[in-house]
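Fill in residues.
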């Protein structure tokens, strides 16, 4: 494949950045392109992603926290990583570089700018991330997941592509949502994001314990917890006599979502993209310390559409959750309605759309036509 067009996908090391990058990689590989992933050690370590793609690891780190020393250390790591990536690009020049946000994406995108290699940015969240804000002015096109994305710099060409979901999720998207009949099991999935979430482990088992015996007996819980929390969460469910599987990580999230009636989760962009694709209603608890509070902005879109229920971290108590669950289980038709509304937010063609943009931009003679055509169709601003 040495003569194939060569695409660099640069991604932060969390699932929120990696999952859409992988979805696009699948489309590019199928089109005959050669793809390399640039990420950090966290991204390299995520299981079951980019298994057939070469990975180039950089040491770039965020400047968040650590005071002046932390900021200086971060700046040095980014400079050194950028030089490392430039040497890589010098040996084999990419056709296009695509940045999916996160600090590990910055060296590749910055190197592309310095070497006049066309680059595209993709934003998963409803608030433009810091790296994408920093690099937006030089990109050929900024692809957004939602048209109401905040903090987009003026003058930047944008297209609303949606947030790509993995091929497996997209293939399962049309399977109907099922409400348990009679005394059937009610499956719940608790997701805390790639790092887990202590607050979900603290509140959810205790809230479920407050439900009546008729509901508790029907519950079948799958709960993602931090490794250090697994044993105590298992104990909490055991004490409440609730069936539960508790692990730090689940490989088959698609299969779990398929049989799930209700999700309780953070509001990361990739999690929401998969929930909207499969129409799974969710109680969303945005991470309060997320940069620019982007998880709340993500969750508001779902809440306003009627696809789920937003509870701020400060309000996420045992009593508040127990009251909401008791109401939802009393009339499960409300969850079915939320499933229908969740699907209205899905963009199942996002991976194809973004891959097509990248492929077209790869031929620099088409760049103007691509943007002009999209503007004509009302997709680019």
């Amino acid at each position: 494949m040495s003569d194939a067009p060569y695409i660099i996908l640069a991604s932060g090391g969390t699932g929120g950045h990696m999952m859409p990058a992988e979805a696009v990689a699948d489309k590019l590989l199928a089109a005959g392109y050669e793809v390399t992933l640039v990420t950090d050690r966290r991204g390299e370590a995520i299981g079951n992603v980019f298994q057939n793609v070469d990975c180039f690891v950089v040491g770039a780190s965020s400047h968040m926290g650590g005071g002046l020393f932390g900021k200086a250390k971060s700046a040095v790591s980014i400079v050194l990583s950028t030089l490392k990536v430039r040497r890589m690009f010098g040996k084999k020049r990419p056709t296009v570089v695509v940045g999916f946000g996160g600090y590990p994406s910055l060296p590749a995108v910055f190197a592309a700018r310095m070497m006049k290699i066309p680059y595209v940015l993709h934003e998963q969240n409803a608030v433009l991330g810091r790296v994408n804000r920093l690099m937006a002015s030089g990109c050929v096109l900024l692809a957004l997941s939602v048209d109401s994305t905040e903090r987009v710099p003026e003058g930047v060409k944008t297209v609303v592509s949606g947030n790509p979901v993995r091929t497996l999720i997209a293939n399962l998207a049309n399977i109907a949502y099922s409400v348990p009949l009679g005394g059937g099991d009610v499956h719940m999935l608790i997701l805390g994001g790639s790092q887990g979430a202590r607050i979900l482990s603290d509140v959810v088992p205790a809230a479920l314990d407050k439900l009546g015996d008729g509901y508790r007996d029907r519950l079948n819980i799958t709960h993602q917890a931090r490794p250090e929390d697994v044993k105590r969460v298992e104990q909490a469910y055991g004490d409440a006599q609730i069936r539960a599987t508790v692990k730090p990580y689940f490989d088959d999230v698609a299969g779990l979502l398929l049989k799930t009636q209700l999700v309780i989760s953070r509001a990361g962009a990739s999690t929401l993209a998969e929930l909207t694709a499969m129409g799974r209603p969710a109680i969303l608890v945005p991470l309060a310390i997320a940069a620019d509070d982007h998880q709340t902005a993500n969750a508001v879109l779902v809440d306003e559409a009627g696809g789920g229920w937003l509870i701020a971290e400060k309000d996420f108590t045992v009593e508040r959750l127990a009251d909401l669950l008791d109401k939802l289980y009393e009339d499960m038709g409300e969850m079915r309605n939320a499933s229908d509304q969740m699907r209205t937010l899905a963009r199942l063609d996002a991976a194809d759309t973004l891959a097509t943009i990248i492929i077209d931009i790869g031929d620099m003679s088409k760049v103007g036509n691509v943007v002009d055509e999209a503007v004509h169709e009302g997709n680019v601003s």
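The chain has 16 helices and 13 strands.
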